[in-house]
Design goal:
seven-stranded mixed beta sheet; elongated; 841 residues; alpha+beta
């Protein structure tokens, strides 16, 4: 049976070792084909066989590993049930919905209770499942639906609010503790300790040791709430990890702060001579909490692109039901509903106009600022804006099936994916914490044996524990991937996964298909050269081409329709892939195709060869029409070059990339078009048949080139799949976009350069993040261990170590956020061949 995929929002992760532990736990379950946990998005994506394991088993496993899973619960009435088999049928239908964890239906109360992963399942999918099973539902109120749809966001906010409360307690008690401790250590309260301050009102004068004990008891009183209220999560998570025989970031903090606290408590209670370090324990916890709070705030900004995409959606829709206009939540719109849109409103879902006409602002999808005219039969896309006129349309795609819904899904999947470079980080993170604990123990033993000073040995060991930072390692790659893919989406660049983003940064060659990519893809007939009648030539050609789906054939049919010619139905139609078409019209055998096809069939072109050369010199595609094996005439077809193609190719060359144009046109026409966009003859691959495009890509790869293929048509799909990176124009076919690694929502070729530039910036950010994370630990741990103390006398305070650790994670996240400020727009370049236009080329 086919596997299913489930994405679960996970709570409680603090470092890369947490993500690795959850992955390993999930993969041990029978039926789990794969598991991937992303620390930055705080999500686990599991591929599983529903015959062997169920979603609630996955959640139970995550919880047993010591972490939480956010789920929502929705209860709603069900209508139409008559017996226990009805109840069972509805439960099975609900459990088949992706994201549903548990579903129970009560026949007596006629209500269903569903537990599901928010953001994966929702009211619209649950309702559709019940209705598809043949039953009805009574919708919850709009307020209830809103609360359910926002379940994960609510849980995340509660998590951040809890961190804030813990931080405030740590600051409220830790700050005065730190000030008093510094005052003691720097001698500011030395006179009081020495007895300089006299006690009056009959109180007995206190000795210095008594006053020091009183101060130490005050330190204990201030440190304890920090240690066990603000720091409780460190202990809870460390204990959960210990129960499973592992250790994580919380283990290091719990060990480090507890060592300072317990040692100080022993000094106070057992009367040991020595310094107390209550302030060290409290400040460690306060600084780590501050770092985590700032990290959580910064991480929330990494998902800004998803939030902005979701914000584009309309909240409600006006539907026509039973002849009455009704405003309903967007989740309640069903396929087939008639939806009414008035001026200034957003189109709620995808559909086809049934009545009325208007102009729509589709800039959120295409990037084009000019409104697009729409009338009956035209498609409309959800989240576009109706500028003028009112119209009605029939909903064809709702919920996650809309164009915007699919864009959001693609971005979410990309943000949750792992780049190949992350595999090395995961392996290091798996052993990082145990190694650090080992280094801390070794540090303590070595310093104690060398100095016989327990306190000094302890301070070195604690500094090692709290300076080590697996968090920075775990966040270095996923935060940059999140911001990079999100920034791309905001610029109309959809990147399928992190692997594609990494590969795109190492491209050396970009191959463009000509038709619909470099050119507009809307060819038009410009010339007719006939040995008899132009109308007869065009009528015969269009009659055969009316069954063709080729852009050139469609251009011929449009030209015939513009002349109002009566077309015949051809017999024996056959498409000659990459060459032309043939068929019988009015008992005459008509062959239409390239001059090369005619030569192969032995058809003499005669005087037409001069016209062929002339038209090809004007960058026009020449189609020859032969009737009963005699050349009847020529049809010249031109496909205008996109205004931005030359600028895009100039920018790609400036980036050091080789650019190649691939086309089925004859070499002379192809070279003229190549010259118009700044390509030399050696950069033009002409007369390439559709079935050999992929072979050309592989030929380039065989020379050591890392190749991107840019195309938009069905016949480009094999070449897109063969390339190292397939880039599909969003104005093209669904097949091309499904095959590609990158989809450009806008037809502007400059987006290709923008996508490659974004990938390079993202990978550069990842490298800097990893460099910082590694070099911080490589330098910080030896300093904390006192490696340079004998030479320099430098001893790192555990408080400074904790501050450095907290800063390292925040630095990595904020460094990734700089990608949001990336300027991706490629400037409009001047035409690289101005002389060509002057020559009429």
């Amino acid at each position: 049976m086919a596997t299913k995929q489930l994405t679960l929002p996970v709570t409680g992760m603090t470092c890369a070792s947490c993500a690795g532990r959850i992955e390993r736990g999930l993969k041990k379950l029978p039926g789990v084909a794969g598991a991937q946990v992303n620390l930055a998005t705080e999500q686990a994506t599991v591929e599983y066989d529903p015959q062997q394991v169920q979603p609630h088993d996955l959640i139970t496993k995550v919880e047993q590993t010591g972490y939480g899973v956010i789920t929502d619960r929705l209860e709603f009435p069900v209508t139409g049930m008559t017996c226990a088999s009805c109840q069972s049928r509805i439960e099975k239908a609900l459990r088949k919905v992706e994201g549903v964890v548990r579903a129970n239906v009560n026949l007596a109360t006629e209500r269903a209770v569903v537990e599901y992963a928010p953001g994966v399942a929702g009211w619209s999918t649950l309702k559709a499942a019940v209705e598809s099973a043949g039953y009805g539902v009574i919708e919850p109120s709009t307020d209830e639906l809103g609360e359910q749809e926002d379940g994960e966001a609510t849980a995340r906010r509660a998590e951040v609010a809890d961190k804030w409360r813990q931080l405030m307690v740590a600051v409220a008690f830790g700050l005065p503790l730190f000030i008093l401790a510094m005052g003691r250590d720097l001698g500011f309260i030395h006179p009081w300790l020495m007895g300089g301050a006299q006690l009056t009102s009959g109180m007995v004068a206190m000795t210095r040791p008594a006053r020091e004990d009183l101060l130490n008891w005050l330190f204990l009183l201030l440190a304890t709430p920090v240690q066990f209220f603000s720091g409780r999560d460190f202990y809870v998570n460390a204990w959960k990890a210990l129960r499973h025989g592992t250790a994580n970031m919380d283990t290091l903090i719990a060990l480090g702060s507890s060592a300072a606290y317990i040692y100080s408590l022993a000094v106070l209670l057992l009367g040991w001579s020595g310094h107390v370090y209550f302030e060290t324990a409290a400040v460690i916890i306060a600084l780590i909490l501050l770092g985590r709070f700032l990290e959580a705030r910064a991480k929330s900004q990494t998902s800004a692109a998803i939030k902005s995409l979701i914000g584009l959606q309309a909240k409600t829709a006006r539907v026509l039901r039973g002849g009455v206009e009704t405003d309903v939540p967007i989740a309640s719109v069903r396929t087939g509903d008639i939806v009414i849109v008035r001026p200034g409103e957003k189109v709620p879902v995808d559909g086809v106009i049934t009545s009325g006409q208007s102009t729509l602002d589709e800039s959120m999808l295409t990037g084009e600022s000019m409104p697009v005219e729409k009338r009956g039969g035209d498609p409309v896309v959800g989240a576009t804006i109706n500028r003028s006129g009112a119209f009605q349309f029939r909903a064809t795609r709702v919920g996650k099936e809309t164009a915007l819904g699919q864009i959001i899904r693609l971005v979410q999947e990309a943000q949750g994916s792992k780049a190949p470079v992350q595999l090395l980080v995961d392996r290091i993170a798996a052993v990082f914490v145990p190694v650090v604990i080992g280094i801390a123990l070794l540090t303590f033993v070595v310093w104690y044996l060398a100095t016989r000073n327990f306190t000094q040995a302890m301070i070195f060991a604690v500094a090692v524990l709290v300076i080590a930072c697996p968090c920075a390692l775990g966040l270095a790659t996923p935060t940059a991937i999140m911001v990079g893919t999100g920034t791309g989406a905001e610029h109309g660049i959809l990147i399928k996964n992190a692997e594609a983003l990494e590969r795109a940064s190492s491209l050396t060659t970009v191959v463009f298909d000509k038709t619909g990519t470099i050119t507009e893809g809307q060819p038009a007939v410009t010339d007719l050269v006939s040995t008899s009648s132009d109308d007869d030539l065009l009528r015969l050609a269009a009659s055969v081409e009316r069954n063709s789906e080729h852009p050139l054939g469609e251009a011929i049919v449009r030209a015939a329709q513009a002349r109002q010619l009566t077309l015949a139905q051809p017999n024996g139609f056959e498409a000659l892939a990459g060459h032309g078409v043939r068929g019988d019209v009015d008992d005459r055998h008509v062959l239409i195709g390239s001059p090369r096809l005619m030569q192969d069939r032995g058809i003499v072109l005669g005087a037409l060869e001069g016209d062929i050369a002339r038209l090809q010199g004007e960058a026009k595609t020449v189609v020859v029409v032969a009737v009963d094996d005699l050349a009847l005439g020529l049809i010249g077809i031109a496909d205008p070059v996109k205004a931005t193609s030359a600028a895009a190719i100039t920018e790609l060359k400036r980036m050091g990339l080789r650019v190649v144009m691939l086309t089925g046109d004859n070499r002379r026409t192809a070279e003229v078009i190549g010259q118009r966009v700044g390509l030399g003859s050696e950069e033009v691959l002409a007369e390439v048949l559709p079935e050999t495009k992929a072979a050309e890509v592989r030929r380039l790869q065989s020379t050591g080139q890392v190749v991107a293929m840019v195309g938009d048509g069905i016949n480009d799909a094999p070449a897109l799949a063969a390339a190292d990176i397939g880039i599909a124009m969003g104005t093209g076919t669904d097949v091309a976009m499904e095959t590609a690694s990158v989809t450009l929502l806008r037809g502007d070729l400059r987006s290709v350069a923008e996508a490659i530039a974004l990938s390079k910036r993202t990978m550069r950010t990842i490298r800097w993040n990893l460099f910082w994370a590694f070099i911080y630990n490589v330098i910080g741990i030896p300093i904390a261990a006192g490696l340079f103390y004998p030479l320099t006398g430098l001893q790192l305070s555990p408080m400074i170590a904790a501050g450095a650790m907290a800063f390292s994670s925040v630095f990595v996240v904020t460094n990734s956020l700089r990608l949001r400020r990336s300027q991706l727009e490629v400037p409009q370049a001047a035409d690289p061949q101005p002389a060509l236009k002057a020559q009429g080329i």
